[in-house]
Amino acid sequence: MIEKNTEEKIVQAAEKVFIEKGLAGARMQEIADEAGINKALLHYYYRSKEKLFEVVFKLAFKSFVPNLVKAFDGPEDFFTKIERFVETYLNLIEKNPHIPIFIINELSKNPNRLVSLISYLNIDIQPIFDVIEEEIEKKTIKQIEPQELIINILSLCVFPIVAKPMVQTILFKGYESEYNALMKKRKSSIAQFVISAIKN
Amino acid sequence: MIEKNTEEKIVQAAEKVFIEKGLAGARMQEIADEAGINKALLHYYYRSKEKLFEVVFKLAFKSFVPNLVKAFDGPEDFFTKIERFVETYLNLIEKNPHIPIFIINELSKNPNRLVSLISYLNIDIQPIFDVIEEEIEKKTIKQIEPQELIINILSLCVFPIVAKPMVQTILFKGYESEYNALMKKRKSSIAQFVISAIKN
DNA sequence: GTCTATAAGGTGATAGAC
DNA sequence: GTCTATCACCTTATAGAC
Known about the structure:
The structure is a homodimer. The first copy, chain A, is mainly α. In chain A, 78% of the residues lie in helices and 0% in strands. Chain A folds into two domains: 1-47, Arc Repressor Mutant, subunit A; 58-198, Orthogonal Bundle (Tetracycline Repressor, domain 2), CATH 1.10.357. In chain A, helix 1 packs across helix 6 (99-109), helix 5 (78-95) runs parallel beside helix 9 and helix 9 runs antiparallel to helix 11. The radius of gyration of chain A is 20 Å and the shape is globular. At the A-B interface, helix 1, helix 6, helix 7, helix 9 and helix 10 of A face helix 1, helix 6, helix 7, helix 9 and helix 10 of B. Chain A binds a DNA duplex through residues 6, 27-29, 37-45, 47-49.
């Protein structure tokens, strides 16, 4: 195990606590404990709770959203792209299952956080729109708004994860193993569902 | 305007503040102000913040989840049921757009809240499973796990609402009018998408 | 039932020694 | 850079008058 410097330890501890508890529920004391230091040092490196939160939020956002655009790059056939995207994205979410709800919730409480991030990351989804519209013109898929197709794919990937407690309890009588089994199947079945829906 | 009694005023104020700020972010003082009373009275009627929150959470949950089951009742043709369900549910969400993220987020922070609710509301989704399996047997729709079909429909309805800030900013360059236009279209297009995906 | 006042303990942030 | 001690304020909850 490599010895991390203090700044790294703080960010890592802050990620854990903020993502688990949210901005309002997190405590600077808990972050300090998690990092194995004291509160004063937190304020020495990051001036305030809000500033430290912004660092964590930006990291979480960066790890999820821009990859989305990249996954639609590549030379494959359109349907293969969808298959690959779903699998890649579900694997990413599987490794960090609490990040989507963290981002969604903090943005719903303060949508302004996006403004600075968007210009900073300069996400450009026009290429994805172009690819979809091209397929529509080629008549390989049915008429659909590019935005709507993207929303549909994302919905099917993200919602079952963020709503896991409800899905598992209500649809699977609380059995996590059955929930997990379906989530594993979905790595391929989501793409099949989408392709069936749009194929001409 | 009918004069409400104190208990009603408190619950209504608590709903507003808790749903907007979440359990951790809400303040008893703000709820008291919103209700036009003082903090002491809050504790007189509901012993603690947690107890008051439980009342609000139960109300929010009750207003959303059980209706879901009822919407799949009725004599119509299966595809019409899906159409009617999506439209009904989207109208419900449109009127209370912050409740889904509230429920999802508070459950992700404390999944135990579900346990008491489930037995209390005794939600039985078996009838929906039966309807779906019947359609599969009749070969009107493709083979699919009933749970997965339900998840897919719910995902398409709920996700775009809870992720509104992101969807609006990234997919619609921030224009709320374009976001709203698509959401309006989705009252029918979600069902069409699902039906295309499963139809035999 | 409703209020004012206050207790009791947290919470973010800083001062100052080392 | 890192620590202890402490400030100033906030927050839930209760006591007690009316």
